[in-house]
What does this fold into?
Amino acid sequence: MEETGSQKLRAAEAGIFSLAVFLPVFILSAHIGERELSRAYPLAWSLFAAAAAFAIAYTGRVSFYRRIFFSVSALAFLAHFKLSLFSRIFEASCFKDTPFCHIAIAPNFLNYLYQQYLAFMSGGWKLWGPLTLGAAWIFITLAIGRAWCSWACFYGGIDDGLSALPRRPLLKGGSWALKLRDLPAALLAFMLLVSFAYTLPVYCLWLCPFKLTDVFMDAGAATHRLQYALMALALAALVIGPLLTKKRVFCSYLCPFAAWQAFWGRVNPFRITVDREHCSGCLVCATACPMTAIKCGPDGRPEVLPYCNLCGECLGACPSGGFRYTLLGLDLPAAGPAARLLTAQNFFVFSALTLGAVFSSLWAPAALRDVVKLLAGGN
Amino acid sequence: MPALFSEGFLLGLSTGFYCLASCLPLLAPYLMAEGKALWKFNFFIFLQFTGGRFAAYMLFALLASLAGRAGQYALPAWALPAGLLGCGLVMAALAIFRVSGASFCLLHRDFSPFFKRLPLALGFVTGINICPPFAAGFLRLMELADIVKGFVYFIGFFASTSLFISPVLLGTPWLGRRANEIGRLTLLLAGLWYIVLGLQGLL
It folds into this structure.
């Protein structure tokens, strides 16, 4: 009887939480798509996000339901934007243009600053753009910081979803997995310098696995082949890597934006914190972490690296429940009737899920419409 | 002579931004990899690097003047890719072999007595890494065909381009062990990049 009452209370709390996610997502996604889409599609997407919120709040399994939401969002992006390049059925957008690739922001940042400087100094200050894209990035970084990579990135969802498919890893990185963990930071520093030196988007030309066309690659046959080879390598890291290793290989080792966000994301207060008293030092968390962002510290206990993007996988993996979401390492004071709702975890999941769902409203409702049209035999 | 110094200086001043963009991928990763949170130490690295560059410029001033005297008025086609290849090989070798500390190594080797002179060598290969402003100065020296005038011209060019490169020191007081590790990997990537570009030009 007492258990049933507790379940009802938990369901009520989860209901309130999911409603808190649903309302802003629906209002904003309906507004985003209002010129091209029926309200039914944003409503369906908002209900999906709200369902994920309910499941997380009710079960406490953050990473499992996050991954479902995240992977569906990434699949919707692939269907709507990438397949629309091939097919007439999948229309080119609800926004006419593809969204600006956030991965390109990081390696081209110096070029961007230089362009803004030229625009400003040449009197074309009306073209000065930091107030749009820059403001969006600052808002995202302040709101969820590094969690972008596990809750909102429309490419990360592919890597993350695939890494969950195998039951056991066929390949293990061993000590090299941690030795090379700074590779994305090095790649970012290198790309910033080389892109600036050659005034070219070097990352996009040489390494991006997401491009579907090669018309902008180098004209020289040998360089062209090399660019193809590196692109294939990145694609393998994105698709095959997670299936073999159960790790997000592309996001962990080749994405310069992940390193960028790991650096700037520290301004965001949400953290994953290890409770040393509960920790037995089994390091199951380090094995489970898909981002290779937990290493064995000097005292034999886990140490969370700056590359952690708060996916929550370690929370579920730790047998003694030693991990939790905090605000700069601190818990919120538990007092009052809503104490169970007003936790650092709920604040974080609310921020990340709402932002991820609103951001993916740029394509997810439209992808749903594409699928409906396809099933209905449209052309 | 002052006029020639000014000419070289102004060439460097007007094209220094390009010099900065060309030199940064070499100098910045090296400073990241080997620098410390000590401004003086990093400044010493910078001075050695600049010294290497200066030596390379003087060598090229000599070669350009001699080439001009011999009636040669064009750079050989292999010069630029060979310079890039040289840069790339030095950088990659540096990233792979010059490792210290137990936490991160590509290969556990340390040739410190020799590699203490590396900023100088790196500066030298940066100097022979011909960029368009440098090539413009080089062609001018071929035309002048006078060794002393060539030295004066390139001293001016060197002085003004160094002004553009020096702000790279500003970020170094915050360097730590992790920045060193990231710097080594960056140096390796930049070295591989220059090797590819060099080979592409030569083959």
In short: The beta strands of chain A are 270-274, 294-296, 302-304, 323-327. The mean pLDDT of chain A is 86. The two ends of chain A are 56 Å apart (CA to CA). Chain A touches chain B at residues 179-180, 182-183, 185-187, 189-190, 193-194, 196-199, 220, 222-223, 226 (CB under 8 Å).
